[in-house]
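Appendix B, example 12.
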Amino acid sequence: MRPYERTDELRQSVNELGARVYTALRDGGLEAGLLVELACLAEEWTVSTPATRELLERRTAELTAADVFRLGEALLGEVRFVPTYALEPALLAELEEDLKVVERDLRATGITGTLRVIIPDWDFMGMAWVEFDGLCQGNGIPPGSGGTLCVADAAQEVVMEVIWEAWPACPEHDLGLHAEPENGIAVWRCTGGEAHTVAPIGELPPLPRRRGPARRK
């Protein structure tokens, strides 16, 4: 077996065992033995951390319930485990709430059509996608990578692919807006003239109908 194949195998094993630890930690009943098994895999995967060393150096019988909980959370973070949408449906629900915010801007600009978050069967990576009128476009959203800004980017890309014009557009410069962070919130910004913020995402005012398609910029 080539070294990179062994690395991929270990990564998959860490993810699979991490899912078991995550589920047991979330639902209760996490056992120290399962953590020790994950710590051994992590060390073999060259991920040596304070949690792995503590789990491998201490006797399992000495670990209290509080120790197991603490080390379980620490170890999942140290191996960078992220639950899938199937394992943690709340992650998908958060994307759906973010999409509702973006959808307010879609309706404010007079665009109809069905906008939703899906996990298509053809995406073997298990990512979520924003679908508009039955079409997905651009990049998927990996678990743990959501947020209004990320969802707005995904929605903007697929909406523009369907309507064949820039969306949303600046009412002053008739240029396509960009989703960007500003002082901790997601906003729509225009690069026309002196770059300026048009509105927080989800708070676009109703815009007058344009005579022609806005320029993409």
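Strands lie at 115-118, 129-132, 135-136, 178-182, 185-190, 196-200. Residues 209-217 have pLDDT under 50 and may be disordered.
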